[in-house]
Amino acid sequence: MVTESSPRRVIVDTDTAGDDTQALLMLATADRIDIEGVTICAGNVEFDYQVENAKHTLSLTDCDATVYEGARQPLLKEHTFADYVHGEGGLGGELFPETGIPSGDRHAVEYIVETAREHPGEITLVCIAPLTNVALALRQEPELNELLDEVWVMGGNVNCLGNVTPAAEYNFWVDPDAAKVVMNELDVTLFDWGLTVRDTGFDAETLASFETGPKTELRDFFVEIAQSVREFNRETLGADQTTQPDSALAAALVEPELIESTGHYHVDVDEREGMTRGYSMVDEDSVTDGRPRTTVVESFDNALFTQLFRDMLFEKSPEASL
Ligand code: RIB
Ligand code: CA
């Protein structure tokens, strides 16, 4: 049971841009969570922008977690950025932080493995990026699943349209070889793109209430970074709204009541180049002989999420109204 007196200890693996920053803020401002460390993986924008974005985001809070640099490209595939969603630097407009804060003294993968070994059963790995670092950690430590407390992943698209191709979501598409390893070798709680689109977005009315609320540093930061994804969603979804894939996962770690329903399925990933690269095969009808080891979050309480997010922005405490 996670409480303020015994917070959940997490390592956050992120490709810090856009909503990754809000996930970091959610976890860094929550009393029920202790961020042990942050690891950076090749993803949304240029790697060094992601590193600075993570350090800058944490500097807006009291969290002094170290940022460790990890894989700068996928295991095998050529890397593809998502700067068309998040802006060149990943923070929407003109924000390109240069914090001067040093990175951790070892590779992110080494940090993940050593921390899991030193604190068996204590660490939750929060994966909100392509899964390259996590797959490399599994290769270094085959017992990683037993050493970690839990593994939560934002990725895939459960029998619905992806957001990079019709078949695939960005985190699984960018490094499908890594996603395949992770989904077959770790017991994962999965937040997919389908859940993101159904249950996590903030509509124009909610966004307006944020913009007209009291001026705070976190509110201003959110409004700035949300511009780019709102523009992208206006063009692609035809609606002025955000999508909150990473911060929704983070909020559910803070308040598990946000998760309304789950299913347990075998999940595999297509690592081959081509039309179905990165496709997440989710065996909802149990027609394969795969082990149903993945907990897929199928419904999420958007109203309660909005409350936690609002309290994070204006009170710097997502649990303020709980
Ligand atoms: O598909 C959405 C995911 O890909 C999010 O984690 C976003 O930050 C990108 O990494
Ligand atoms: Ca991400």
Helix/strand class: alpha/beta
Helical stretch tally: 13
Bound molecules: alpha-D-ribofuranose, calcium ion
Give, in order, the helices and strands.
EHEHEHHEHHEHHEHHHHEEEEH
CATH topology term: Inosine-uridine Nucleoside N-ribohydrolase, Chain A
Low-confidence segments: none
Strand order of the largest sheet: 3-2-1-4-5-6-10-7
**Mean pLDDT, all residues:** 96
* Ends distance: 16 Å
Oligomer: single chain
CATH superfamily: Ribonucleoside hydrolase-like
The helicity comes to 25-40%
For the record, what CATH class applies? Answer: Alpha Beta
Description:
The protein has 322 residues and is of the alpha/beta class. The chain has a single domain, classed as Inosine-uridine Nucleoside N-ribohydrolase, Chain A, CATH 3.90.245. It contains 13 helices and ten strands. The chain has an eight-stranded mixed beta sheet with strand order 3-2-1-4-5-6-10-7, with helices on both faces. It is globular and about 55 Å long. Alpha-D-ribofuranose binds at residues 15, 17-20, 43-44, 82, 128-129, 154, 163, 169-171, 193, 245-246. Alpha-D-ribofuranose is lined by residues 15, 17-20, 43-44, 82, 128-129, 154, 163, 169-171, 193, 245-246.
Features:
Inosine-uridine Nucleoside N-ribohydrolase, Chain A, globular, alpha/beta, 322 residues, 39% helix, binds alpha-D-ribofuranose, binds calcium ion, 13 helices
List the helices and strands and how they pair.
Layout: E1 8-14, H1 19-29, E2 33-40, H2 47-59, E3 66-69, H3 83-86, H4 108-118, E4 123-128, H5 132-140, H6 144-147, E5 150-154, H7 170-174, H8 176-185, E6 188-191, H9 193-200, H10 204-211, H11 217-236, H12 245-254, E7 259-265, E8 267-269, E9 280-282, E10 294-300, H13 302-315
Parallel strand pairs: 1-2, 1-4, 2-3, 4-5, 5-6, 6-10
Antiparallel strand pairs: 7-10, 8-9
Helix pairs in contact: 1-2, 1-12, 4-5, 5-8
